[in-house]
Design brief:
By secondary structure, the protein is of the alpha+beta class. It contains three helices and ten strands, in the order E-E-E-H-E-E-E-E-H-E-E-E-H. The protein has one domain: Cathepsin D, subunit A, domain 1 (Beta Barrel). The N and C termini lie far apart (58 Å). InterPro entries: Peptidase_aspartic_dom_sf.
């Protein structure tokens, strides 16, 4: 699911809602554009689904606003910052989704959460989601240039 949010007083598109992620990710290229200065250093690395290791540059907490004209909610979100190629600007993971008490419907392409006494609905932007998917295929193909090693075995000396 790809949506837009407001963080650091900027509207940020290409935000992936990832129910499988245990962290909220802010990519370094996005952080530079936002002019983030208050980065807390953090040692360690994140490990992806396939076991790839990405070093953590630091962590930062940003007030992040979810929603639109149907209702908004602003909460502090702790982002883990990494410097790697991605087709998204931010990944929102389970910690924030739980704090929002959000309900995700992939079938209906929306996310719902309480804003006081009303329920806000955030809809997927299908056009941006499609472009993110296409861009992710490009990022993957450029970052994984596998070499071929040919070994010459003489099995019958």
């Amino acid at each position: 699911m790809v949506i837009s949010v407001i963080a650091a007083e900027y509207k940020i598109e290409r935000v992936l809602i990832d129910q499988g992620s245990s962290a909220n990710i802010l990519y370094w290229t996005t952080a530079k554009k936002l002019g983030i200065q208050n980065l807390t250093k953090c040692q360690g690395a994140l490990y992806g689904f396939a076991g790839e290791r990405v070093p953590i540059k630091g962590i930062v907490e940003l007030e992040t606003t979810f929603g639109d004209r149907s209702g908004v909610r602003t909460i502090p979100v702790l982002y883990t910052m990494v410097d790697t190629e991605a087709s998204y600007n931010i990944i929102i993971g389970r910690p924030t989704l739980n704090r929002l008490e959000a309900v995700i419907s992939t079938h209906h392409l929306c996310m719902k959460f309480l804003t006081g006494r009303t329920v806000a609905t955030v809809w997927v932007d299908a056009g941006i989601a499609r472009r993110c998917y296409e861009d992710s295929l490009k990022v993957e193909s450029t970052s994984k240039k596998l070499g071929v090693n040919i070994l010459d075995f003489d099995l019958y000396p």
